[in-house]
């Protein structure tokens, strides 16, 4: 919920004054002791909030979800382990879990999905990271086209989908092992490519370093790279670019 | 020059038939033996062409420039050493050299600059890489705002410029040493940030690896990273995003 | 207990001669076979003793605790696993365990806390390491101000606490992932900053290497770095500096 | 010159109003285009200013020196190459150069040296880095005791100097190759040790990485580490600690 | 010259007995003091000999060339610097130098070239390493098809040559930067691919490590990798495979 | 089954038209959503298909096996965990499991084994990787000679088997720790050697990096290297070379 | 048992002819399929045999023990897990297990221990590796002096034992973390020092790499290094040197 | 000159009292400001002194040589550049330079060479490092057998020299690239092997890291390793072992 919208709701009586007060008094930060929550973004642009859950306790995540829920935000949690989900599901029955992507979502209100982001993987094993990217882009309001297992060792599988991929405003290329998907992709499309190396592989893949270096060293133009297995980061930036392209970006918002 | 434009010029008599033939017969690739030139992009979207000159001989660059010039393309060369420039200047008197950025430009026709890309550096020493990014974005048609020496060790210098930076459709953050500029920046603006680590530093900076890792591991949302010292790659992608935002991207083109 | 104090206690009859003998005859080292204990420090300056428990057996730790207890020392153990604690608690009922920081304390006498050390973290996940630093500084006699989750991706959270942080004689900055907290902090305060990289992160954080390199390469003045996750080392040195500042250091003690 | 002092000089007529105006109007930053100078520190605490000259042009350094000189600051430049010095000496005849440490100093007013910092090296080859540390500490107002070539392979050379080293409020331990000096030192003294790894060595020293790792992994208490060859950083922090100990720190300032 | 051939020449009087003796008495090794030459291979299979010249003095190379020349061998030297060539050319007027590939050849007798090896590069800058591979394969008796600048960022340039490449019994894929050429190639052809990473690139290419890792981690089947810039090794093995395929391998030899 | 064979079977009535249609209509790719299967190879050359099972779910592998089985292909799965096998065995009773090599095979028709590939190991611990190589080569139609525990620290064990090894058209050298087997082997035989580093070792073996580097840096001629523990890749390429040598390669097929 | 001894036993009737035959017929190697056992050493010099058990199955170790037992050898196994020991103990009731050092011994005949090897550790946590070294040296016939927890952070603990250490013909210095023990030791004694880095440590110790680099880069004379945690290798070589010094080496044997 | 010898010379009048006084008064260390010289060793055991000259100025080396010369020591300098030698030769006309090994020697008295050390290299390019080892061993009193270019890629060259190598009390194995010489050697001889990795190689040899890792990971028994290119260290330790074996070690001395 954005500030403008909040004020209008108060004006129209849709929101009680006391609730509006409660929301506004948390500004600029809500300090939970173990976490300082920034409620600015949601209020500024209506975007949802996200929580990186990897090394937080279930209790800490619970506190953060409560705080954002109270503010009327949509919230997405990443890197959520099944046991964390089980704990949280009991406290937030409306919580949704995507186990492959390890993502939870607690939706306050629906989000319209616009434009198009293409999320592609080199192999079957890269799908969990790709789903993290795809769900993130969808959470923030992008339509997503999933195109999986089109790695460069069978280049014709990729070429067969090129026209489809070119329709996206931004492409997310997810690949482990040699990680060459991004380079080939950036040479085929004209819009920006966000490359995500994955930790899929063994031996000299060094947990994704091989794919990361491949992507950083690409001689294809129009590609940038995020951290290994960082599907979230790629989905977030792809959504930014998609919204800029659609015109639903800062100019209109 | 785009294909549509070429055909119209033939139709209107602005271009002679023989010249049009010469251009079209090179399609799809022109093989110089040591290089296979792709003239598609220029014809498809009117963008200029670029040559990575680092490990090419001056003679090879000369051949490539001739080929693109013949096609009516603007051409930009990166990583050009002074002695390469001296050789080329004699053969292409209209050649322009930006020594700090090590860039040459051979312009066939002017390019309109639209929108806004902000190019920021952490320190004075990062300026050459930043200039490579800025000139690249300008070459491809973006307006650029240069904001230099605003590194995080003196955070108020950066905060003083935040409003200005927020006006850009895309931000390029150039930093060596600890490379923290990108993270802070991405937390301050809402549009995408392209982070460029530089090889500025000594000891455990390992030629830019420290800054690269900082950028890849940023917990700020909305940032992706290119190779160490790859100002060109950042400028190229910033231009793509800027054009998508301006609406002068593929939709209108 | 210091030597001077010991002798005075003998003189005043507060300590029996036989007990004083027992203490003094262990000088300079007590050899337990698997460990050579140095009782000098406690005797010289009344500081407590510490034991790194990571790869010691519970039996070995028990022996060391007994030996220090016998000497009238406060003892702190770091990197203590819950099962080690369970074993030791049965033998030392007065033992205190801080599970998040994995620290045990066996106190012979209270310690006055003076001056001020600020312990800050970039994120919630860095808190365990920060607690190790904070408890260590407290064990050795420093007052500690805990300021958590003020990472640079939301720079205003940190700026809001700057005045508070400046009051400390020494700042401990704990951060994983990109580890930029230290640089920004050192630019904001005038007293020394001890930076502690943590192993929080994934992918190209390489178990804390990314944060470590960021901190080593900081262009901010007035910062030095300890090993990844070494909250103990940072807390120890922060206490040294704090005591030098307070004047309760070696000159007066 | 501090603000208080400036105002008093105006009051007493020692400084003309126009000069005071010129100084104050630059606040908070002076933007030279390629550099944003922060004049706060000098005004706040009377400390001098420093410039990292490694990758700046001689012209850029000249501009920065002029700017600080105009403000009445002492200025020190680090990593100055002989040819940079030659250029600058012609423009600032009072400039002093320490070639071994690659440091220039442009002094506006003398600085009193108080307390004691010990700067030690393992070998003869580590002296240039040690001199950078020593000169930095002296520039900021610390007395320095230089103790060179006391590496651990001849441990008695170090033991012979222990009493002398213990008199310092802070010790800087400079060592390349195996870098063990810091560990032994921190075990011998009770005040903080700042360890500086140097790039002295060959083969598996990897340009100082071996010494850096040794220092980070020290099991001695009371030591922190700066970047490879970063004598400046160690000297700066040693001076901070020394001033805190002397009581000339922030409490009195 | 093979042993069988030597004996036949003696029998037919084509070779004098004294010359045959001189050759045979060097068996099995000729010890030059600084080098132990193995004349077995030439005698066993008529293949030529090779010398790695990188860190040998011109005098040492001269001695080795003389020794092989005396045995009637063809000799090829790799990594020969221009000044080494100048020295050697005066002593061996028939010496041939390929400056781009840094190869010298001293031919005793012509070698028939059979079958087909394809040597491909990703970019123009990879040509020197590719030439080392191509000349090596030719020296040992393979026909070579050179296909340069067909990197994956412009995948259609490669696809246009696929049929031609498939005709080879073995493919050498030479690429720096992201090094993805090998993977795509191995997916397109059915014969073995020898991948050669090159040190072309900058920043996170780490002198060829990026390309090396890409190649080692390829999920394409039928590819193996040699050291960075080791065109010689790839050309040698490609020739072995080509001869096995042609049937001029050990079975017929 | 190859296309020619398929058509002949239709012609002779051995295969029903509807079955042939089913096979052909999947061309060129069968998209299972999570995987794009390429049935070309089997149809082109009668080779079997392979599935890398490491990070696929048992359900995904089941789907892929079904698809290939339906096409009349032999299928081999690598890196299969016992629990995956248990799941699959219930659904494909004819499935064979080689637990040491972690390979499953689902055979539609027998494969003739020709020529000879030698698979050698340095130690007992390298046998699992060697078995992966050996079974792969056998799956694709090569005879295999297994020669285990002939590492270079007891060089006479290897020399005793040299004559036997020389009979192979291609040698696979599998070694962990110092990984020197490949170099010595390549110096002893004249046919190509595929070196496979294994992750056997501890400490500075870094999970196989030591052996990998040894193999890449070999000064022996005629060797190329695959990824750490990549027995499959080595077996595949050894089979390619063996078939080229036997003449059952593409020329006759 | 040595060959000479064996023949004498036959001559004197102490050994039956058939048993001697059985032993001799295994020469030079006994091939168990998964292992090629070298019985030469035992026969040549009466030394015992060793088996590296880390990645062997209990069944394989059993076979190897049987084979050596049959030959009358003493056998020692290293890196033996408790479950491997349990399996083996049932089959070899006389087997002895040293759990801390993970060593098993199966003794055919006693070994005289001569000379002196000193085995020292920096900390308590390094003892398991030190015990591996000490037991190895004892197994091969050296007397061993164990001196534990004398790390350099408390240098006086080491100095107090110097005279004792100097009596050894060879010193083994075992240390993790910063690994500086070796350097200090080599500066204190005149006989050779074998340094063993251990994987004790955390963070930037990188599993022992820090200690390894420290030891390799030592500027002390008279020290060489073995692999991380390789107590066996150090003990073996210390025994060799000790026997050379005692004169029970090859000259007398 | 040893202390006992000095006193005897005084007694016999061979040395003047004043000269003896001058020597003795420097004990224990002579502090040159930039260097603390330890004259103990020479006096204790008559061994010569050594100076590592790499990063010392010619003036500093001159001072050190003078100091040792004055004490009647033989002195050897390592890593001496030609220009350093030129400077020193003018001041010490009797100075000897070995340019390949970069060693200078300033001999006060001859040294008897006893026993035998074998110094072997894998290739011609490893000879400079081997010469540093050989000359060092000779300087300290060992006879040396040089056996060059016997690398494992031509294993028979090494086997042909095995008997000769076995005669040495200690073997120094010098190798770059894959560095396998040490492993094979240690398997062939029964006395200790000191392995020296060299920086010879390119690409993935990483300046000697490949050879270093090979040597550290050797599964051969009886080998330890020194730093890359550290011929001096290997020669020193080989001499120690050789003297222990000969009986000229500490027991007789």
Description:
The structure is a homooctamer of 253-residue chains. Chain A has 253 residues and is an alpha/beta fold. The first copy, chain A, has two domains: 64 residues, no CATH class; 134 residues, Rossmann fold (3-Layer(aba) Sandwich). The first copy, chain A, contains eleven helices and eleven strands. In chain A, the strands form three sheets. In chain A, strands 8-7-9-10-11 form a five-stranded parallel β-sheet, with helices on both faces. In chain A, strands 3-4-6-5 form a four-stranded mixed β-sheet, sandwiched between helices. A two-stranded antiparallel ribbon of chain A has the order 1-2. Chains in contact: A-B, A-C, A-E, A-F, B-C, B-D, B-E, C-D, C-G, D-G, D-H, E-F, E-H, F-G, F-H, G-H. Chains A, B, C, D, E, F, G, H: One of its GO terms (biological process) is 'de novo' IMP biosynthetic process. Chains A, B, C, D, E, F, G, H: This is Nickel pincer cofactor biosynthesis protein LarB.
What is the oligomeric state here? homooctamer
Mean pLDDT of chain A comes to: 89
Residues in helix, % of chain A: 40-55%
Uncertain parts of chain A: 248-253
What is Rg of chain A?
20 Å
- Strand line-up across the major sheet of chain A: 8-7-9-10-11
What general outline of chain A do the C-alpha atoms trace?
A: globular
The CATH class name of the largest domain in chain A reads Alpha Beta
- Biggest interface: A-E, 34 and 34 residues
Total beta strand runs of chain A = 11
Give the terminus-to-terminus CA distance of chain A.
13 Å
Strand content of chain A: 15-25%
Counting helices, strands and paired strands, the structural category of chain A is alpha/beta
Please, how many domains of chain A?
A: 2
């Amino acid at each position: 919920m954005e500030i403008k919208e909040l004020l209008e709701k108060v004006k129209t009586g849709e929101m009680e004054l006391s609730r509006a007060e409660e929301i506004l008094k948390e500004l600029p930060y809500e300090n939970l002791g173990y976490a300082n929550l920034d409620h600015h973004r949601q209020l500024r642009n209506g975007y949802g909030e996200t929580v990186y859950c990897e090394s937080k306790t279930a209790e800490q995540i619970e506190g953060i979800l409560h705080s954002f829920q109270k503010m009327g935000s949509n919230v997405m949690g990443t890197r959520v382990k099944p046991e964390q989900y089980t704990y949280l599901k009991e406290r937030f029955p409306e919580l949704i879990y995507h186990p492959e992507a390890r993502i939870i979502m607690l939706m306050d209100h629906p989000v319209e999905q616009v434009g198009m982001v293409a999320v592609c993987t080199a192999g079957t094993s890269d799908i969990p990271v790709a789903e993290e990217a795809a769900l993130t882009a969808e959470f923030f309001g992008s339509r997503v086209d999933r195109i999986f297992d089109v790695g460069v060792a069978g280049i014709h599988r990729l070429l067969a989908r090129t026209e489809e991929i070119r329709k996206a405003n931004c492409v997310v290329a997810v690949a482990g092992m040699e990680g060459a998907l991004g380079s080939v992709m950036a040479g085929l499309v004209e819009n920006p490519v966000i490359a995500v190396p994955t930790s899929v592989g063994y031996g000299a893949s060094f947990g994704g370093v091989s794919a990361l270096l491949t992507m950083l060293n690409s001689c294809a133009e129009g590609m940038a790279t995020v951290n290994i297995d960082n599907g979230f980061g790629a989905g977030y930036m792809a959504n930014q670019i998609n919204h800029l392209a659609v015109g639903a970006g800062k100019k209109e918002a």
